[in-house]
Amino acid sequence: MKYCRFQLNGQAHYGLVESAAGREAILRILLTPPEEADGDLESLRTRRIDPLPLEEAALLEAVRPSKIVCIGRNYREHAAELGHEVPPEPLLFLKATSALLAPGGAVRRPKISQRVDYEGELGVVIGKRCYQPAADEDVRQYILGYTCVNDVTARDLQNKDGQWSRSKGFDTFCPVGPLVTDEIDPWAGVGVETRVNGAVKQHGTTRDFIFALDVVIRHIAQAMTLFPGDLIATGTPSGVGPVVAGDVMEVSVEGVGTLRNSVVDE
């Protein structure tokens, strides 16, 4: 199942995304938010609407998390390009929920930063409350679906501060979308690619994760409760780099779609 959040007649809705006439379209409105389905998307009631092509919809942020948990240096080549060692266990940090940005929105480069980087990533959306799962539990039951994330970073401030809250947490620094799907399998490998002004800058696969998703989720849930709707950004491949005003960033995740955002100066 695929779904998105969009605005229709001045109101925010969740919409079921299906194939219609050879392209993706919103055919039904979900009458219950997906994060309230306790992981069972098939049980949600829907209402049919006139088909609305996804590319014509006024898309909103695909998720409404209580927190955004991110994994640093989850690709060896990315750790190497920044001159960092590979962490011995998943490296966690948080992004502010006020950083969320819808597809098509403009990322604002702060005046106080001289270098702002793109970081394309696979996002995991939690579907069920998860805290310290048993060792023999399959963590896939806690996953609602997957999406695209751009973990925008003020790189100079990250290096200056040592800790990453400010550099990762500026408003507009977490574009997410365009939709959420449960139809891919990151364990089997899905491609993650970032383009800037049409040129490929990052290309990786989730098969290259240092820490697989089950390890990541268990590690997070040992420390904090993951609630339905929470978002996990799973790490970025090598190839990160700066953007300037006027650039267009595109993060594509195989089987999900493309998240496109422009860049402006604050």
Topology (SSEs and partners):
Layout: E1 2-8, E2 11-20, E3 23-30, E4 46-53, E5 58-59, E6 68-72, H1 76-81, E7 91-95, E8 100-101, E9 106-109, E10 116-118, E11 120-126, E12 143-150, E13 153-154, H2 155-161, H3 165-169, E14 174-181, E15 191-196, E16 199-205, H4 213-223, E17 231-233, E18 241-243, E19 248-253, E20 257-265
Parallel strand pairs: 6-17, 8-14, 9-20
Antiparallel strand pairs: 1-2, 1-5, 1-14, 2-3, 3-4, 6-7, 10-13, 10-18, 11-12, 11-17, 12-14, 15-16, 15-19, 19-20
Task: Please give a structural write-up.
This protein has about 270 residues and is mainly beta. The chain has helices at about 75-80, 155-160, 165-170, 215-225; strands at about 1-10, 10-20, 25-30, 45-55, 60, 70, 90-95, 100, 105-110, 115-120, 120-125, 145-150, 155, 175-180, 190-195, 200-205, 230-235, 240-245, 250-255, 255-265. The strands form three sheets. Strands 1, 2, 3, 4, 5, 6, 7, 8, 11, 12, 14 and 17 form a twelve-stranded mixed β-sheet that branches. The termini are far apart.
Provide keyphrases for this structure.
266 residues; mainly beta; 12-stranded mixed sheet; 5-stranded mixed sheet; 4 helices; 42% strand
Overview in brief:
By secondary structure, the chain is mainly beta. It has helices at 76-81, 155-161, 165-169, 213-223; strands at residues 2-8, 11-20, 23-30, 46-53, 58-59, 68-72, 91-95, 100-101, 106-109, 116-118, 120-126, 143-150, 153-154, 174-181, 191-196, 199-205, 231-233, 241-243, 248-253, 257-265.
